[in-house]
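Researcher: Hi, I'm a grad student and pretty new to this. My advisor asked me to get structures for two proteins we've been looking at. I'm not sure of the right format, so I'll just paste the first sequence and hope you can take it from there.
Model: That works fine. Here's the first sequence with its structure tokens right after it:
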Amino acid sequence: MTAPSAIDVRSVTKLYRRWGRKRSVGTFKAALLSGRPGRALAPDEAIPALTDVSFVVAAGETVGVVGPNGSGKSTLLKLLAGILRPTAGSISVRGRLAALLELGAGFHPEISGRENIEINGLLLGLTRKEIAKRFDEIVRFAELEEFLDAPVKTYSSGMAVRLGFSIAAHCDPDVLLVDEVLAVGDEAFSRRSLEKFAEFERAGKTLLLVSHDLGLVAERCRRAIWLDRGSVAADGPAGETVTLYRESVAEREAARRARAVPASGQAPRIGSGAATVQAVKLFDSADRPASRFVSGEPARLVMEVNAPGRLTDFVFGFAISTVAGATVFGSNTAIDGFVPEELSAAATVVLDIASLDLAPGVYSLDTAVHARDGSPYDYRRDVLRFEVAAERAAEGVWSPERRWSFSGGVRWKG
């Protein structure tokens, strides 16, 4: 038997009007206000925020919504919450709805947290008796005992989010809409929020979660909807949808970087040029060029270098970072015990990684050849990017088993 739907979105389009000056008949009053007869403020064009969006969420489902900024995610939640009305199409939400859509939304900044709890509880459909019964738990969950009687305008962003989420979570909603609530709270609050999500799921509640935390969506949601430029690009199991979205991000970023490469065709680099990195490649276990891996697969990093003159002081290195710039792995020949003897011609440097045990995401590769004191001969940052997919989300840093090999004009002591 199919579960009844909690959310039903059918062929929804939402247009925003952009206003500007253009030629129109106008009224006499409009002509006087504009200062130019025959010209008045009028809508220049309609900008679509959502276009023909349709989906159904069954009662008890936990669904994530992902997509880049400007893809229509927040507009969708505001339509579901009844804050906005669709330009076309229909929306149906069944049961008591609670929504936490943006920082401080629904709060009166001049009155206290205590008064805002009472007002928001009433707006969410609770009686005064029900609010009184749940009041202490709302305050404890939000950890605002000391600030309860202070005006909300004095709250930090994290305090405001904790209060808003606590009120929404304790009003016993059938459907909860959440927009990036975990991005502002601290670790302890995030953990309590995730526990509350699990509690909702066990109770058969419906949760629609917008988040840029793709690991969270893949792990906590059974299903995910990817919005792209206001349309549904994918709708399916959360892990599959997140992978498709990550692949799209990686492809777009690769295209952007290709357009940004200087006319010489070389990526930005620094160094004296005493040795140069001629090419950098990434191969999979079948020795094929690769830009996408499954976590745990082997990978081969290859650097082709050249030294126009004889060098006796040199180090080769690779580093892997997140696209946000956090280093997750870095090593070089000096760290791994190689003592240089001579580099005097073209050489190939290979680093084999037996198991690419990275969390899912898009990563950036840096390469370098430099002196032992760190002086760069050729340092190439963000020379290529690759994507890692995994069945489960993960966090942390990484130091894998690894093996170096060399060919051509390079020799080591010992």
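Researcher: Oh nice, that was easy. Here's the second one.
Model: And its structure:
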Amino acid sequence: MTDILRIEQLSAGYGPLGVLHGINLTVRAGERIGIIGLNGHGKSTLLKAIAGMTGWQSGSIKLNGVEIGGTRSQGPGRYTHKIVRMGLALMPQGDALFHGMTVADHLDSGAFTRTAWKERMVRRKRVLEIFPPLEKLLGQPAGRLSGGERRMVSLARGLMADASLLLVDEPSLGLAPKISKSVIEALMKIDIRDGAMVIAEQNLSLLDGRVSRLIGLHAGKLKGGSAAPTALLSEHGHHHHH
């Protein structure tokens, strides 16, 4: 089995600024990895680099054994559509939803590959099993939903295509603790089969005990791949009280 994701010596940033410095990370089939760190320490940049959306980057990123990284000096997003078609889904921070568009239409918009589109009803049923509250909201415009419901629509849309690697950026951002917990629980229900999931999250306790590995990201460098959460916490535990 090839590793789903293999990152070697990745550095990346925007303009003259380097945000990530010499990152190495391997994610195997069936793994859910939590990347824990404060805002501004590079979590979003790491996910964006994998999707080819940073200002510049160097180093190797392999998705299912195929190089998608390399040295890139400009044109953020220019190859992202190709990477996405190779099996990547990025659920970005916040909710890029269209207010007047219904939940059902948002889900359909995630089924953009030909196969996904043909099977969209079956797929919709599957994502509604993961996010049951959306079932009765299918006809509702996104603008009428609560924050938690909107987040679920964003994540569900990302699940409609064929991704072997799911990247989820700050799923709990801006949500009340109880809602955050239900969103994370839904993410854990996703059957990743022989794919993998990487969740970037500020809130360690949400992922603790739910993922295969927790990795700290501090000042653009990864800390400990199988590190016990306590080691991660002692590093910047005092920041974790919201």
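Researcher: Is there anything I should tell my advisor about the second?
Model: You could mention this: Confidence is low (pLDDT under 50) at residues 226-242.
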